[in-house]
């Protein structure tokens, strides 16, 4: 028993000075990779690297969707690098809408801060799960599934989203189809939409082809 205690104490003493990497503040001057950005040297890290004020102010919602998303992903908030965590602010004017979109790299947790938001997602079995959320209520959106948020009751709304990745990615379905160079004949063929309607939507969103 005595020898076991001595061995345990020796082991603890030998590992007590081992280096533990507590964080990896992103060096945004370097290239992003599968494992994230390289780390800023710890000696150059300050408290400000772990604080982000970019979600404190409302964004301008004067646009076609009457809404705006302010991200706090690794590109804006280097302190989340490697932590599998990021956030965003959603500002929605009356009847504002965040169109159908996906986050290929993360699950999302939406927290309503003001107003009411009709939110929902479509499962891979084509079942729609939707709910009108009020202040303080949360909803989850599984990774990769199409989902949306709409300001309800003709009033503005604010929500905050938390993601399970420092870089969740974003692809908006309408923009992918009608703000890109995806050709009109192919869109019509793959979506069964009328070509004239496709052209009209492309003219609105700035697409070509």
Automatic annotation (TrEMBL):
Gene3D superfamilies: Jelly Rolls. Pfam families: Cupin_1. Disulfide bonds join 24-39. Residues 1-18 form the signal peptide. Oxalate binds at residues 103, 108. Residues 53-199 form the Cupin type-1 domain. Keywords: Apoplast, Disulfide bond, Glycoprotein, Manganese, Metal-binding, Receptor, Secreted, Signal. SUPFAM superfamilies: RmlC-like cupins. Mn(2+) binds at residues 101, 103, 108, 147. One of its GO terms (molecular function) is receptor tyrosine kinase binding. It comes from Phaseolus vulgaris. Belongs to the germin family. It is found in: Secreted, Extracellular space, Apoplast. One of its GO terms (cellular component) is extracellular matrix. This is Germin-like protein.
